[in-house]
Amino acid sequence: MAAPIAAAGAASAAADAAGSFADDHEDPRLAMDNAVQQLECLADGSEAAAEQYKRLVALARGCRARGDWSGVDSLGELSPAELRLASVDFHAARAAEKALALGPDDRAGERGADPSAARARAVVVASAHLVDFLRLAARLGALHPPEIAKLCAAAEIAAEVAAGTGEGSAGAGAPGRESRVARATAAALDAAAAAASGCRPVALRLAEHLDSGGDTGDGDVAWGAEGARLSAASDMEAELAAADAADRVEAVRALRSSPEARRAAAITRHRRDRGLERRLALLRAQERRAEALASLGEDGVAGRGSDAVAGEGVVGDAARRERAVIELLLHTRQAVDSVVAMAEEGQMLGRMLARATGGPGGAGSDERVRRLTGEDERRGGPGLSVVHFGADHSTRQEHIKATVFGDPRGRATIPLEVFAAQEQAEAEERARRQAEGEARQVMRADQLAEAGLEDDMEKVDLATRADREWDAWKDAHPRGMGVTKRV
User: Fold this and answer.
1) Which residues pair with 395 in a beta bridge?
2) Rg of the chain taking only CA atoms, in angstroms
3) Tens place of pLDDT for every residue, the chain, 487 residues?
4) Where are the domains of the chain?
5) Distance CA 97, CA 91 (A)
């Protein structure tokens, strides 16, 4: 598995060296000095680390030589991830120590030696050890960090170009390439220093427990207890792991009975899940961006080289792996939460059903309820009930009984003969008003012609007068005079 990871990481590192670290006029020797300074930061405390991690490295080398990694089980409950952290820390310190030993010492011991060549050899050795401990970390850990492939490839490329620079071969004639690779090496070593500083406290605690146990087997017990404590997934599990075996039951009961402890654990789980969801959204966005860049590379769009697209593809592969792990964690926790919620809901539904049917746990099983029921039976009936009276001194029950079965239609208030006479009178009045209105209406000339009343001079005069009045009004009010908005 290490070969595909290294090949993929080489493409990623080449893309970073070509795109992220642009060409400039920086002296390659200054870049090499920066790399050596990074090695000096890693070398701090390396002798003490070598003594503390001696047994761990012996075990790791034996497993690597045999090709059998089942020997890590002899460390008790120590997880592969914690073993990987300790091994990475040790090899980082050893790589820095070797590089410093070959850098300044060889430069001072060789007469007439080129300082840049000495620095190049230092980078070669440091890169080789960096590749060694990164590959070992990938083998020892059940899950390796996504940065392993990138750092490993950067170290390999830095070693290759630094070797060419020190020997004065073709690499010496490419200062731009040397500058880029030297910067990539410095960035890789800087990331390795950050990783080593982060995992060093964990490895120190594990090494102290191993050394305190000696060869009698007690070290495995102490190591396992420390590993269990460090691998606690939540505050509640960490507190339980820290408690003694005799007090485990009491600690569990206290945590379950304490509302504050349950609330704190729930808040911790909520924050953890929200953080994972935000990280998952970021990884999905990066994956979509990587796919888009890959499609751009296939189409040959200008401005994006094939190396840069290959680098984005590698990052996308690592992001997809991390995304799958986070999705599995989220789905697992959601399933567990759902199981717990369904169990609690089942208990509540059971209590509600028992209360409704009077079974176990319901109202019928309550001694107080049975006592009250017996008293009612001795009295000869139920107890008092509340009766509400309305404004007309009638109860609500009486009102409902009186109106619920009534006729929904409205009842007649007058005889049918009187109602018919009223309707006839209203109809005659409407007809009279309509006839009067038609008589007062003035017909126009065209209407008179259509009706055949051209000979009725009175109506013709009225129509002529109405037409003239209408023409006069139109002359006094031209079309559009009331429009105040002019476009």
Assistant:
1) 389
2) 47
3) 333 333 233 333 333 333 332 233 344 334 334 444 444 443 344 454 444 445 555 555 555 566 555 554 444 344 444 444 445 555 554 554 454 444 444 434 444 445 555 555 555 555 555 555 555 444 444 334 444 555 555 555 555 555 554 444 334 444 555 555 555 555 555 544 444 444 444 444 444 443 444 333 333 333 334 333 333 333 433 444 344 333 444 444 555 567 777 777 778 878 888 888 888 888 888 778 777 777 776 655 444 444 444 444 445 566 667 778 888 878 777 777 777 778 778 888 888 888 777 655 554 555 555 555 555 555 555 556 666 666 666 677 777 777 777 777 777 889 999 999 999 999 999 999 998 887 777 777 788 888 787 888 888 888 888 888 888 998 888 877 766 666 5
4) 1-231, 233-351, 441-477
5) 10
Contact 68, 59 (CB under 8 A): no
Listed residue (149, 198, 193, 200) closest to 34, CA to CA: 193
Distance, in Å, from the CA atom of 257 to the CA atom of 250, rounded to the nearest integer, reads 10
SS3 142: coil
Tell me which DSSP letter residue 482 carries. T
* Token pair listed for 162: 């630094």
What's the longest Cα–Cα distance across the chain? Answer: 143
Residues 313 and 363: beta-carbon distance below 8 Å = no
| C-alpha closest to that of 102 among 161, 148, 162 | 162
CB distance 150 to 185 below 8 Å: no
Q: Is 382 helix (H, G, I), strand (E, B) or coil?
A: coil
* DSSP 8-state code for residue 395: B
What does the alpha-carbon distance between residue 301 and residue 469 come to, in Å, rounded to a whole number? 81
CA 25, CA 23: separation in Å to the nearest integer?
7
Count other C-beta atoms under 10 Å from residue 144's C-beta: 22
Give the CA angle between residues 113, 118, 123 to the nearest 5°.
170
**Per-residue DSSP letters for 301-360?**
-TT--HHHHHHHHHHHHHHHHHHHHHHHHHHHHHHHHHHHHHHHHHHHHHHHHHHHHT-T
| Cβ within 8 Å of residue 161, ≥6 positions away | 171, 177, 178, 181
Q: How many CA atoms lie within 13 A of 401 on its CB side?
A: 5
Residues 6+ apart with CB under 8 A from 269: 234, 333
Q: Return the number of other C-beta atoms located less than 10 Å from residue 283's C-beta.
A: 21
Residues 6+ apart with CB under 8 A from 424: none
Q: Which long-range contacts (CB under 8 A, 24 or more apart) does 64-69 make?
A: 64/136, 64/139, 69/139, 69/140
DSSP structure class, residue 389: B
Note the pTM of the prediction, 2 decimals.
0.26
